[in-house]
Amino acid sequence: MPTKVRSTAETRERILTAACEVIAEAGFEKIRMRMVAERAGVSTALLHYHFDTREKLFTEAMTHSFAHTALDAERDVDTAPAAVVLARILRNLLPTDPELHQDWRLWQELWARALRDETTRAFAVDLYAQLHAWVAGAVRRGIESGEFTPTDVDDLSTLVLSLSDGYGIRLMLRDPTVTLDRALTAIWRHVAAALGLPETLPET
């Protein structure tokens, strides 16, 4: 990759990482482009060169966040057991570590904004379609390899996302009646029943 192209890509990466952090900390409605520029260590002029509006920066930050989450979960996807890959995805759909906790704050900002803005609503629906495809792809690979019992893939994927959202919100609220282990176990129980797998969540 040419040096200039690599430098531009690295700058965008730094800006998007900073945007994720600032939006998660302050909320979308309170952020200013200057705040992101300062966190990224770039000028506001350079930030505006890459992202001319807050809205574009927000949508790119959400896409960036999702892409990194998917990349982590699907490492060794061609060699790892299908159940392990699916368990990784499930863990990445919940606020299981500080980085994913930050991602969940971004999703909460997205939900709130989508209720008031049609463009953001359409973007949120598209992101959910990508999440659905991510889960469905892992399930289909397991069925095709013979590791999973055939099932209605779309129905199971929708169930997984719905349960993850529900438990994830309770975890973000620090609801004392819901723990991470309990959430993972409950969701995996439904997955295991549908796919003919042991009820014990695989180590990832």
TrEMBL record:
Gene3D superfamilies hit by this protein: Tetracycline Repressor, domain 2
Gene Ontology molecular function: DNA-binding transcription factor activity; transcription cis-regulatory region binding
HTH tetR-type domain residues: 9-69
Transmembrane segment boundaries: none
Keyword Cytoplasm: no
Domain of life, source organism: Bacteria
Keyword Transcription appears in the UniProt entry: yes
Keyword terms of this UniProt record: DNA-binding, Repressor, Transcription, Transcription regulation
Record-annotated DNA-binding residue ranges: 32-51
The name this protein goes by in its record: AcrR family transcriptional regulator
Organism of provenance: Streptomyces echinatus
